[in-house]
Amino acid sequence: MPINTTFAIATNGNITGSAFVPGTDTRYTTLELHQWLQDLADDSAPTGDDNVSILGSNPSELAGKRNASRPMALTLLNGINIDDAAAKWFKFGSIEQQSGAVLYTGLKVLGTLVSSSPIYIIQNAAKVTKYWSDADSANFQILLKAKAGGVLIDSGNATVYSRKYGQTYSHFDVNLAAGGEQAAALSTALDTNVNAAVMTPAAAAALFHTSIGGTASTAKITLSYGDTTQDLGGGQGSLLHKGTITLDGSVSLSDAYQALMWACSESSTITFNTVPGFRYRVLPGQAYPENVPAPFGAFAGGKWFVAQGWWLTGVMAGDSKNYQLVSHTGTVETPPTSIAIQVGGVVVGDYVFVARDNGSGGFAQDTTLASSAAAAATTVTLTAAPVDTPTAPGSQACYIRINGNRHTYTARAGNVISGLSPAVPVGGYASGLPVFIPFIDAVVVSGTSIQSANFQYGSGFTCRYRVRKGTTPSIVPFESTLAVTSAGGSGTAVRNADE
What is the mean pLDDT of residues 421-449? Predict the structure, then answer.
């Protein structure tokens, strides 16, 4: 559509015209606006609805010579002006009017974006209502209002975002105060760690106790804000964090990453401590380096590199090594080493018992029952379970001795032991009964060694182990100690015939 048929100039100087249709209409350059105005200004008299001619004042001027390859800073003079609706028609330069009280600055996006990477703009902490098409990301060039009433909007600052769920994210801060055309450099790519067909927006929202077109679920991911000093147990010591991501123990780190990526997408309805997810960049109130492609930290090689300042808790046992944290002060924190204890030199039928040494030739009583447990119960609560004991069985079972009775268990969450087998016997267990957690408490069923379930290494300690077999061919009972280090623990039985 030619510019002269799109616009008209009223007697009061207002440039008015057709409504701009994104994706259909083509924008004019500021140079084309100037050329049109100057073409009218050399007419002998106003024609039709364009009230500009040689009889009137000069309507516009450029900052510099006309140049179709250089963004043009155009000033509208002597009452000529555009409004916000008309400004949507222009690009490639800036338009200043009303003696500098109003400024529309050019904004262009540079960089490599995957197809269908929609762009949105945050100005003055709010989204700018789109007057461009999402398809414009391939060649994004608009004017954005930077000054009104003689005052810069948010000091001229704006941020250009591209955050489509399923892609890596990008944003760029620009300042529009100088006019001309300002560039925002963006880069996006497909995020192969997001499966949007499975972890849909609705599924992601449900993890935050948020419903999209359905009933709200119970929160499985919660975020809290405030100082917390924690020791991950990997040798870095107790470190300060400024926020906590809590998983309920049933959410994988992969799912948590995907859900948080959705929560930071353009369409997000999540708020992080009053900051809308669609403009979340770092933990609120902090000035950490930004993780631009993934605001809560990158996910690579099956591991989540969590953004600085966040403490992570409630991680599933299978993910216990699949993350890395960064403290408030920038210290990289890695989870403790997963180790096991092994006893070799045994044969099928040997009974092997391994538990902490009490320093006096016996086994250490780790803890007691914090409360009574009724008959047939499969869960008990301890006063203080040792941190470096198995949390769940892998290829090996987990064991517990309550008042001397042997049980296996399927899970330990803090001081709560669940999945007891056999269940609590008739008569129940009274509060205060002695409890300890052996690493191995079983008969060898195959091979020449037996191993404990894996557990997280906290610090070194000594274990006592016994190997016995009384049935023919019997052996002399063997007992010794072994050291447990960050590499695990290993002992070897000496089997002498007991004849």
Answer: 96
Quick one: tokens of 294? 């993934």
Strands 411-413 and 416-418: antiparallel
Q: Is 8 helix (H, G, I), strand (E, B) or coil?
A: strand
The token duo for 210 is: 């948020």
pLDDT digits (tens, 9 = 90+) for 321-354: 899 999 999 999 998 777 889 999 999 999 999 9
pLDDT (0 to 100) of residue 316? 79
Cα–Cα distance measured from residue 393 to residue 399, given in angstroms and rounded to the nearest whole number: 9
Residue 280's CB is within 10 A of a number of other CB atoms, namely 20
Report how far residue 329's alpha carbon sits from residue 487's, in angstroms, rounded to the nearest whole number: 29
Q: In angstroms, what CA-CA distances link 479 with 336, 452, 475, 494?
A: 29, 17, 12, 9
Q: Which residue has the tokens 């957690």?
A: 437
Cβ-in-10-Å burial (0-12, 13-18, 19+) of 447 comes to exposed
Please tell me the distance from the alpha carbon of residue 176 to that of residue 145, in angstroms, as a whole number: 8
**pLDDT for the residue 216:** 46
User: Phi and psi (nearest 5°) for 165?
Assistant: -60, 130
| Closest among 200, 136, 139 to 166, alpha carbons compared | 200
Helix (H) or strand (E) holding 441: strand 440-443
Per-residue pLDDT tens digits for 156-170: 999 999 999 999 999
Q: Based on the number of CB atoms within 10 Å of its own CB, is 366 exposed (0-12), middle (13-18) or buried (19 or more)? A: buried
Alpha-carbon distances of 308 from 259, 281, 333, 400, 469, rounded to whole Å: 18, 11, 10, 38, 54
- Distance (Å, whole) CA 87 – CA 84: 5
Digit-coded pLDDT (tens) for 234-261 = 778 889 999 999 988 788 999 999 999 9
pTM for the whole structure: 0.74
The dihedrals phi and psi of 91, each to the nearest 5 degrees, come to -155, 180
**DSSP class per residue in 127-171:** EPPP-S-GGGGGG-EEEEEEEETTEEGGGGEEEEEE--TTB--EE
- pLDDT, tens digit (0-9, with 9 covering 90-100), for 371-416: 999 999 999 999 998 888 898 887 789 999 999 999 999 999 889 9
| Identity of the amino acid at 325 | L
Long-range contacts of 227-231 (CB under 8 A, 24+ apart): 228/311, 230/311
In contact, 142 and 89? CB cutoff 8 Å: no
> What is the average per-residue pLDDT within 33-38?
96
